[in-house]
């Protein structure tokens, strides 16, 4: 029986070197991970970030997870904020804010499908959809990312289901040997999840994961909208404080 085109392409891509894969990218202006500053250096370069202060509500949400302060400097070098197009990132995996049918839609979902090409939809069609809060993984095809992790965010404002999205996406790390992963702002678009609470959930889960998984080298948060840039630059100071800054923007006790 002849294998489907998506499976043939997927098997071929798995055997290619990085240089060979680069020749197949649909985009020429891909972004290598080395040019995306880790948060640690981003803060030191841009002192204006330190003027962005958290609120009392932020402190309440932050206290739901107690960070291991001894790891602050190391972990601040393992997260990044990227103000741009997630489909341009050359990372092991990018996360797609998908719908439950795993069909190409609008926004980030549509952009990822366009960047990957039609074989992505063909593989998605074999997965039987995806429940809210769960995640499925596919090849990245013509994207600079090796894999696409499709997760379905909540439409009912459920923090538990959004938390599950991040947990399920990160759970692929060991099996697929992921060293880098990029997240969009899941559920904050047409699904209407509050941007600030969504960022707390994303950062809390990233911090929790990195404290226990040393092999993950970088988690990138893609912030396309100005409101998300502002929120993440504020809250990253809490969840991933940079030691030795000459102000008081370290995480609250």
TrEMBL record:
It comes from the Eukaryota. GO terms for cellular component: nucleoplasm. Residues 66-240 form the Macro domain. GO terms for molecular function: ADP-ribosylglutamate hydrolase activity. One of its GO terms (biological process) is purine nucleoside metabolic process. InterPro entries: Macro_dom, Macro_dom-like. This is Macro domain-containing protein.
